[in-house]
Amino acid sequence: MKTTFHSTGFQPAWRSGTHTPARQVVAHTGGIVRGKFPSVKAGRMVAFESLLERDALYLCDFSESVTDIREQPFTLPFTDGTRVRRYTPDFALKLEDGSTLVLEVKPAAKLTQPDLAQTFALIRNEMRATNQRFRILTDDAIRREPRLGNLKLLHRYLSTPLPEPVSHVLHRSCPNKTLEEWGQSLGGLPYALAAIAHSLLIFDWSQELCLSTPVFAPSQGDAHVQNFL
User: Fold this and answer.
1) Which DSSP state fits 121?
2) I need a surface site. Which of 58, 102, 178, 201 has the fewest CB within 10 A?
3) How far apart are CA 85 and CA 157, in angstroms?
4) What range(s) does the TnsA endonuclease N-terminal domain occupy (predicted)?
5) What is the per-residue pLDDT across 59-91, written as a single tens digit (0 to 9) for each?
6) pTM of the model
7) Which domains does the chain have, with CATH numbers?
């Protein structure tokens, strides 16, 4: 049966520090975990409706192209030929170029279901018709290890303020050290982890971050941008 979407553009209202979801985040049911994520990019607690959505928020917070996050950002009405239905995306991400990326988080196994796959194909077409970027993020991409474990370890340090002398130490020091050695140079391991969280130090995300992990200081003036979406 052909499904038709209303040709209307939908955009979240990007007002700093405030957000009213298009629908209420559902309560705890059937053992499924709901909660709130302390998002640095949003500057507030962002509600999630599954652990997979929570894990996706780590990627969003560490992607430098993302400047804000809205959960349940808008509702898109459509008809399936017999009745009006509604689709509410999981998240909308405001990007640094001013555009919006609409994000749906789903287990990859669910997308093999014919009805759901057809629905999301139609949603993607509607988003394209209204000049909106749309992406489905699956557990295959979100839960890639050891990257996700590293993001969880570093997330708390996104809010750690770095003393002014840290940048001078970074450029005066030998550019290649272990994490433990950077901790000694910067006055403590938390400062080294905060420097990594803020991309002032870099490492190979395909390795588990530990004291012996090689960590590098980019050359002064070199741009290092990390994006996980």
Assistant:
1) H
2) 178
3) 42
4) 63-139
5) 999 999 999 999 999 988 766 667 777 889 999
6) 0.86
7) 4-142 (3.40.1350.10), 147-216 (no CATH)
